[in-house]
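Repro:
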Amino acid sequence: MCYSNASTSKNIELSKRYKKVAPQGLDESPLFLASGFTFPQWRVITAKEEIQVMHWGLIPTWFSDSNPKDMASKTLNARIETLGEKASFRNLIARKRCIVPSTGFFEWQTNGTRKTPFFIHPPEHELFSMAGLHDQWLNPLDGQVRSTFTIITCPANALMEEIHNTKKRMPLILDVSQEEDWLNGILAPTSISSQLTEASMLAHEIDQRIISGKQPNCAEVQLPFHNTYFEQGSLF
C-alpha cells in the first residue's frame, strides 16, 4: 500500500506541469517524507482551475462520527478492485477524481524478519501522477469544511513485486496522456494499467536509521544507501 509519500516540487513546476493556477501564498515546503498517518496537507490537482490543498485520508461527506482521524486512517488508500463496493468511494468515482502529484514514494521489502526501505521515484526529477478520489466533510464541532483525498492502489508491476513483496501493491500511476481523461471522468479506473517499466520507475534502498529516526522529513532520507549487512539481489 502507499502510506509514505514525497512532494518536493515548487508551485511553478506544478503549475506548468498540470496547467493549473497556483493560489497566492500556496505552501510549497518540501515534504521529503510524509506519512499518511499524520494526515498531511497536500497540493492536489482536480478539474478546477486552481491547485487545491487537501488532507491525506478521505473523510466522506456523510461521516457523522466523533473521531474523523479514525476514519481517515482507514481511507489513506482505496483498492481499485473494490472502489465500487466501498461506501466511502463508490459515489466519488464519477464526479470527484483527483491527481496526487508525487516526486517519489516509499515501500519496504520483507526478508524474514528484516524490512528494508526503498525510495521509488521517477527519473530526472519528474513527477508521478497518482490517481485519487476526494471529498469534503463539514466538521459539526467547529463548522469548518475539510477537503480530503485518498490514493488509489492496484496490483504491483514487476519492479514493485520485488520491493513490496508481501502485499504486492502500488499506487495507481497515470500516464501523462491519461491525466485529463481521468480528471474528467472519461477514463474507467479498471482500464488503467500501471505496468511502468524500470526505466520510468526507479528504486533504490535508503538508510533505515534515517527513515526510522526522529526527524525523517529531510533530504537525506531519499539518498541511496548501500547496506553491507544485506545484499539487494535481483534489483541491481
